[in-house]
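Reading a protein record of the kind used here takes only a little practice. To see the layout at work, look at the sequence and tokens printed below.
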Amino acid sequence: MNVSRNQVQGSLADTPLDKILAACKRHLITGVIKVTDGHKRVGHIELRAGMVDRVELDGHSDATTMVKLEQFTGDYELEQRLPDLTGALGGAALAEGDVSGVPFVALMRHCEDHALTCTITVTREAETIEIEYRAGEIKKIMRNGTVDEDAIVDAAHWKDARFRVIAPPLDIEVEGWPVVRPQTAPFTLDDAAKAARAESAQPVVAKPEPKPEPKPEPEPEPVVEAKKPEPEPKPEPVVEAKKPEPKVETKKPEPKPEPKKPEKKSPAEQRAEKKKKARERAESKPPPDVVDEKHVETVKIDRPPKKEEKPRPAPEPAKPAAKTKENRAVTAGNDRDLLWMLFAFVLLALALGAVAFLL
């Protein structure tokens, strides 16, 4: 008896199915999970690189199968399996063969296409080359226990070497206990390829097509006599209806709008309106600095023309009384001129005050 490193079992009552699937997804496991419900119902879940690829319950599969399996409380069994060259899962987690039957390059492409997590070991005489894959990608290349990236080139040219493909042991994180069973023999990849080629080489025998059944002859349809066409009735003369005369609508005279009554204004508004009119009148008049000639003429005061005085003869010293009279006349004329000038200055000041008030 052998304790398998690629197969575990347990109870769904202790470890639910979704927890098992999560662990398989983290470790990219390729294989099969078998579940039971404690009776006779058996379900199978096929995994490819940790992802669910196919689900069956008692040989049937539909959209509700996975939901039904998640409700099982019986036992489960997880087994790692590697796919053969046809893509179907083989019977073990170990495969072997010869590079003469399966070339080394085809073996590498097989691991990449199926996203396998495994190790390929190629042996020739005393040399051993190991290629470690994870999810279909090369992680490490070793020759005789030493890292050698160029060793893959030599392995591709070997013609008489043998190879082994083995999946890594299940991680401890995947809950369950190992299965004790006889050691599983590895399957040969070359045998699966030959079987696939043999199936494709067999001639396909075409099944004879069934003869078509004779169709019953259709019964003759009864002859129906055609009816004579009835004479069409004469159309009655169409009497045109008189059009109603259009009514002339008389327009009603529109009422005249009543004149608006002047609104009574408050004393403050009347005073403001008076000031506004006075300001407009003042703005319409030119300022006193630019008054035209006509305006200046209205301000000027007409003075009487001065009489031309004839030169008077020099007073005779002998007549003092006459000289006194002449001095009085000159003084009186000067006083009269001063009064006229004072009067004109007063008028000009009043006019300027009025203009300033209006402004």
In short: The first strand starts at residue 2 and ends at 11. Residues 129 and 359 are 117 Å apart (CA to CA). Residues 203-208, 290-301 have pLDDT under 50 and may be disordered.
